[in-house]
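can u pls check wat happens w/ iron/sulfur cluster
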Amino acid sequence: MYQSGKRKWVYPRKPKGKYTNYRNLVSYILLLVYFVVPFIKINGNPLILFNVIDRAFFIFGQPFYPQDFFILTLGAIVSLISIIIFTIAFGRIFCGWICPQTIFMESIFRKIEYIIEGDRNSQMRLDRQEWNTEKIWKRSLKWTVYLITSLIITHFMFMYIVGYEEVLKIVSEGPFTHPTNFIVMILLTAAFYFVFAWFREQVCTLVCPYGRLQGVLIDKDTVNVFYDFNRGEGRSKWRKGEDRKAAGKGDCIDCHQCVVVCPTGIDIRDGQQLECINCTACIDACDEVMEKVGLPKGLIRYATENEIENQTPFKFTGRMKGFAIVLALLTGILGYLLTSRGEMEAKFIKPAGSTFFVRDGKITNTYNYTFLNKTNDKKVVTIKVIEPIHGEIIYSASSKITVDRDKITKGTINISFPEDDMTLSKQNITIGVYDLKGKLIDSYKTYFEGPFKLQF
Ligand code: SF4
Ligand code: SF4
């Protein structure tokens, strides 16, 4: 036996009030950051870039390579634990204030809808009415503006992957010169359009894994948007001049204003729900009502369940402290890895199938070198054998090798040893890479081959 039904479209009333103003401010700042960051460079490097195609990553202008993957992974773990701690302490504040889905939906697409179709009642009326001239042009205009907005958001998102120069180049050269990029752009635009024009709050209520995690992360000491049922019940319509306390009535006047503003279509008075994204719209709506009827504000407010049920103030629980200690440790390790990350990564690999040759009493091996300069400056380096010390480098070209910033440089060198010094047919060697001031930048352990030696 199963029940079927269809989606109930949510027409939230335009929120207004103290929290809405703060949230608007935060969202405008975040949107500004989103649209400006792709154009910011530090020492010629992008501030943020996740070029998964060329496997080049920049965070705050610092280049990261696949070799630094463990640092990025640790960074991701630290971020995840931060979110967990934050969620245990402050619930879904992230969803309501910072999440890109909420920001794009409430601060861009919903606002476009309010401008074109009007507030809740006008939208409901428009939905119900026949496809007359008004409905056709309003809907066409809204969907066209949505499409253009999705295209703009997608182009900026693409800038975080390939850089703004590349996106401008793709745009100026036209879709037929870059068919793959064009198809990706179209697919992403379609996804954005689908999410914000139609799927909307279902991302938060049905799809988002973070939302699903709430059940295990939050407890009675987590701060969330709560309806104070002790104060609000039993709810009853407002009657002017009535002494509600004497009549045994609570402060909730059952006006449904908290319900009609909710972007996920729930009634906060039914208790804590996974669908609540902590957007605060119901706090503002209820405060406005309380003000009008002369009752204290805060019937719906940020609080913990313990605070509402038992008047216990917010406290840091053992779980929060445990996670905070883990976070501090991981952040310390991450900081160490970031600061001790080498300027250069050098590798010396023997070419496949290569062996040694003997000439003038010396044994010589060939190595292909690869230098990855992780800094923002060009480096000129030399190579020396560190161990055993009597190894000699024979360069195929200059002894000074230039490694451009943020580039990989490849080449070949030969290393020779006096034949008499070679005690084993295969021995370990360490090759060092030095800057022109003689500072060791990186070293690499490999092996050196010579003729077979009999061991006695
Ligand atoms: S807005 Fe406040 S008073 Fe009105 S129904 Fe909601 S909780 Fe009750
Ligand atoms: S219940 Fe209130 S805080 Fe939660 S999503 Fe609805 S309006 Fe926002």
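Residues 225, 261-264, 266, 268, 276-282 surround iron/sulfur cluster (ligand 2) (CB under 6 Å).
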